[in-house]
């Protein structure tokens, strides 16, 4: 149920078309909540039919013109309700951890190389997050909106830092494993 709330959030930040939302998901929200172009358009239709958003009137009538959407009062109320509600954390699911567990019973062939690949990916993601932090959250950016958005970014930075530390430790463990029989 979170995709509609992610879309409502994005539209409250800035009324947008489906294409603009897709681009914004790729550049920001997508770092922690991903959605495909088709999912976003499908959800826009549902939100509109539920009376939570509306298409903005076109400046000039034209066939095939992209629709921009804005949140209606009912949408803001729904987002506020959802934000205020408590929600338990979800169990973490990670295919790499499952594969590592499987390697304990079938052998580690290919695992070390993939751990190194993951380490490189997490290092690159951390560098990207730090670049965003430096660019978008410098001195003087201390409004409530800025501080909460920075808090979300800090979660990404801290998670990437965790994964880099864990993967480094895992690779050290691999160095100490006895040779396969």
How would you describe this protein?
The chain has 181 residues and is mainly alpha-helical. 65% of the residues lie in helices and 5% in strands. It has helices at residues 2-13, 18-27, 37-49, 73-84, 95-106, 111-136, 144-176; strands at 16-17, 53-55, 68-71. A 3-stranded antiparallel β-sheet has the order 1-3-2. Helix 1 (2-13) packs across helix 4, helix 2 packs across helix 3 and helix 6 (111-136) runs antiparallel to helix 7. The model has no long low-confidence stretch (mean pLDDT 91).
Summarize the helices and strands and which ones pair or pack:
Elements: H1 2-13, E1 16-17, H2 18-27, H3 37-49, E2 53-55, E3 68-71, H4 73-84, H5 95-106, H6 111-136, H7 144-176
Antiparallel strand pairs: 1-3, 2-3
Helix pairs in contact: 1-4, 2-3, 6-7
**Main beta sheet strand tally, sense and closure:** 3 strands, antiparallel
Number of helices: 7
Shape field = elongated
Order of helices and strands: HEHHEEHHHH
Q: What is the number of strand segments?
A: 3
Question: What would you call the structural class?
Answer: mainly alpha
Question: Segments where pLDDT lies below 50 for 5+ residues?
Answer: none
Strand percentage lies at under 5%
Calculate the mean pLDDT score and round it: 91
What distance lies between the first and last C-alpha atoms, to the nearest angstrom? Answer: 49 Å
C-alpha Rg (nearest Å): 21 Å
Amount of helix: 55-70%
- Sheet with most strands: strand arrangement: 1-3-2
